[in-house]
Automatic annotation (TrEMBL):
InterPro entries xref list: DUF1850 (IPR015001)
Species this protein is from: Larsenimonas suaedae
A Pfam family annotated for this UniProt entry: DUF1850
Superkingdom of this protein's organism: Bacteria
Name of the protein this chain belongs to: DUF1850 domain-containing protein
Length: 151
């Protein structure tokens, strides 16, 4: 089965069934700019591809143009049409940057408050049995959060 797998400490943390052309997002708070950034990825030919990035302010290391098209949309600079292979996607997750993965209209945060952690996200194939805990974890976190709202 085609999967998107988020690994932390070399173990599957989250997993999602991800057929070709399925997209997901990453968001985080930039450590210097203190603004939220968004990136959209898709699965193409069994690999992750960067499609677009969206942010509010330019700072050190940010290109003035990227992808096939750059435009201003609702106060965000949006760079589209990268089609850049990024599989695996490596991310240094710092506790104060509030990283989260967007999937199916929901956001799934990375909870590593004790230290900065290295996470890698990849498109792979696997069995549901092998990845069962990481397939269930994101949804259990959402259910737990919803239940805590009512308590």
């Amino acid at each position: 089965m085609p999967l998107l797998v988020v690994n932390h400490d070399n173990l599957p943390y989250y997993a999602f069934v991800m057929p070709e052309q399925t997209t997901f997002q990453m968001r985080w708070r930039h450590s210097v700019e203190k603004e939220v950034w968004y990136e959209t990825y898709r699965r193409e030919h069994a690999a992750l591809m960067l499609d677009q990035t969206r942010f509010k302010t330019f700072g050190a290391g940010v290109p003035s143009q990227g992808g096939a098209r750059t435009e201003l949309v609702d106060g965000f600079v949006v760079m589209r049409g990268f089609s850049r292979r990024v599989d695996p996607l490596w991310i240094q997750v710092a506790p104060d940057e509030t990283y989260a993965l967007g999937w199916g209209g929901a956001w799934f945060p990375f909870y590593f408050p004790e230290r900065a952690s290295l996470v890698h996200i990849t498109a792979t194939r696997g069995t549901l049995i092998h990845f069962a805990p990481s397939l269930v974890r994101p949804w259990l976190l959402k259910i737990n959060k919803a239940l805590n709202v009512f308590s």
